[in-house]
Amino acid sequence: MTGLALVVAALVCWTCTNRPAVRAEVAAPAEAASGGESGAEPVADGTLAEEAGLETPANEDLDEPAIDEGIPGLRIAIRDPGHHALDHFHDSLRRTQAHEATTRIAFFGASHVAADFFTGYVREQLQTRFGDGGHGFILPAQPWRSYRHLGIQLESSWRLWDGARVRQGMTDIGSYGYAGVAVESNRRGAWGAIETAASGSVGRTAGIFELYYLSQPGGGDLDLLIDGRRAERITTAADAPTASYARFEREDGRHRLEVRLRGNGPVRLFGLVVERAEPGVVVDTLGINGARARNQLLWEDATFREHLRRRAPDLVVLAYGTNEAGDDDVPIAAYEERLRQVVGRIRETLPESSCVLIGPSDRPLRDAAAGVVEDRPRTTQINDVQRRVAAELGCGFFDVLRFMGGPLSMVEWVEAGYGAPDHVHFTRTGYLRMGDVLFGALVRGYGDLPEPVSDPTATANGTAETAAEELAAPVGSDGE
């Protein structure tokens, strides 16, 4: 079937958001022409928006979803019964537009967020309009092989580092910090390096660096180098475990920052802030493969709250639920109780900040032997809980299930090249479509947006190969 025929056939489904279908036959997915097993699209010249062939209508009325001709996904608004969920975020953007302050956004979530495609699109759109505030919070060494942040070149001796995070079956509280994952090692010579990219519409320069680390009894030393020169030797030894910080400022430009361990004791690094001194927008991408919202309850409270206040995001986004849709052993009432605790802790820590919950994507049940997929009712249950909790706690809700077209919409997304063959993740193109619609929803009601300013010769960062590797990670596992 041709690509055009796939799109036409898929639109039959997308126009029927409330269809009753619960079972569909599905053929084995063919490999994309150049995207490999995952169906991820190759990198193209231009910004992420140009790559996706998308133009986001900035201030349209979205009382009812509309279809962009030839592109899957409904253009929906963020559900906000109280009409004030995004007030603080919009006020911060106005201050940023007036060059008075930096606006920060924190995206927490699972592999959809870890891919940094839809979040990268939102980052690019905001930064080209309101100013490039920098890359935000990044792990200075890879906690897993496919870890990345678009626009940053990341290298490390990743086999010499351990990624400390909550894994399936764990019940003990640990010190994981702001991102919910830390890198640690006691091996001499373990190193990690980040460098701002040489190309791209945004993110090519930085001048502010701040290392978040754990001081602890018996902690080791590390050297921090900027542009090949040692800026400081940091000692992490302390009488008691304490969140610590080391800040460095340089002239705004392209820089390379390295951490190298001395091997005289354990070192745990929570992350590295990479920003600019001038006002702009910063988007922290804090995704962990296989994560659930409840994992945050095992992030040691004092350190997480301290980091959260220090980063002070003006908008906090929680994008969980797709993995929880497969947790049939967890009663839906227990899921709701834990979700309230997770959102409640963030609302209590940052009472003035805006918040948005992003619901689960369609994740149908697959019977490979029979060649059919069936609706997964728990996805709708998870979706309903998130919508209810968001409304009650003053957050907005972005309904991904509705955006995709309802139950079983993933079948058409896969056929059209927007969904990955695992029927769980999206391809790169699919993620960019989600970023396009989410961006439009986030800025709805802001007013007149600044026109985007970007370098037309810029090259979008990221590779099809790394996308394929991450999208192939099994859902429900740690996904390394």
Summarize the structure.
The chain has 480 residues and is α+β, with helices and mostly antiparallel strands. The protein is built from 12 helices and 21 strands.
Can you put this structure into words, describing what you see?
The chain has 480 residues and is α+β, with helices and mostly antiparallel strands. It folds into two domains: 1-133 and 279-480, SGNH hydrolase (Rossmann fold, 3-Layer(aba) Sandwich); 137-277, Galactose-binding domain-like (Jelly Rolls, Sandwich). Helices cover 26% and strands 24% of the residues. The chain contains twelve helices and 21 strands. The strands form five sheets. Strands 5, 7, 8, 10, 13 and 15 form a six-stranded antiparallel beta sheet that branches. The protein has a five-stranded parallel beta sheet with strand order 16-4-17-18-21, with helices on both faces. β19 and β20 form a beta hairpin. α5 (118-130) crosses α11 and α7 packs parallel to α8 (377-392). The radius of gyration is 22 Å and the shape is globular. Residues 1-23, 25-46, 55-63 and 455-480 have low confidence and may be disordered.
Key phrases:
alpha+beta; Jelly Rolls; Rossmann fold; 2 domains; disordered C terminus; disordered N terminus; 26% helix; 480 residues; 24% strand
Low-confidence stretches at least 5 residues in length (pLDDT < 50)? 1-23, 25-46, 55-63, 455-480
Percent helix among the residues? 25-40%
Number of domains: 2
Structural class, please? alpha+beta
Strand % is 15-25%
Broad CATH class of the largest domain:
Alpha Beta
What is the makeup of the main sheet?
A: 6 strands, antiparallel
Q: In the CATH scheme, what's the topology name of the largest domain? A: Rossmann fold
Q: So, CATH architecture of the largest domain?
A: 3-Layer(aba) Sandwich
Number of helices: 12
CATH superfamily of the largest domain: SGNH hydrolase
Beta strands, count: 21
- The best one-word shape is globular
Distance between the termini: 34 Å
Mean pLDDT: 85
Q: How large is the radius of gyration?
A: 22 Å
